[in-house]
Amino acid sequence: MKWFPSRCGRYRQSICLLAGGALPAKEKAAIDNHLAACADCRKFYNELKALTVPLRNWEENFSCIQPDPTVQRQWARAIQAAGRPEPVRRLTPAMAFLDWWQDVIWSCRRIWTGLAVVWILILAANVSLREQSPAMLKSGPSSEMIMTLKDQQKILAELLTDHSPPRNADRQKIFSPKPRTENTEVVAV
Q1: Intervals of the chain under pLDDT 70
Q2: How far is Cα 43 from Cα 31, in angstroms, rounded to an integer?
Q3: SS (H, E, C) 119-135
Q4: Residue 109 to residues 92, 96, 102, 112, Cα–Cα distance (Å)
Q5: Which CA distances in Å does 91 have to 48, 78, 133?
Q6: Taking a C-beta distance cutoff of 8 angstroms, is the pair 73, 44 a contact?
Q7: Residue 11 needs a FRET pair 20 to 30 A away by CA distance; which of 58, 94, 107, 153 works?
Q8: How far apart are CA 23 and CA 18, in angstroms?
Q9: Sign of the C-alpha dihedral, residues 161, 167, 169, 171?
């Protein structure tokens, strides 16, 4: 069977109910009208009807078949066991840890394995760097390195010194207008 196109998707459930004989009578007329107009839905309905008709009449087709008495007893025991309540198990820390392990760790075991590998690599890098660092600290910086650092310090000092002419200490005052009340004299009468 192929999927319905989007315009017929709203009829899918009703067509299934009609094929099974469970569609209410008030909706049947609308679905019959749609089936008369739509060839794809009609084909789908006929395929479903071919499947559901034998299932609808299964009692008539298989009425002569009776289960063996031992099978009936097994079914009866299974039904009775399903009806009994299960005993409540007491939660211990070990059981809680096992439940947590199954829910959190085991369900994402590939992710946790990847994280463990990353942590092991970080630990190995950290250990290898610690083994190298004491040797570097004992020997100290070489004389070439000290001379290079002093040269770089001199170059940096030259770049940072200000070679521009001194700035005028008396900056010109920027014109700021006075309020109107100061420009005019107030005449008292």
Answers
A1: 1-6, 132-139, 163-189
A2: 14
A3: HHHHHHHHHHHHHHHHH
A4: 24, 18, 10, 5
A5: 50, 27, 51
A6: no
A7: 58
A8: 5
A9: negative
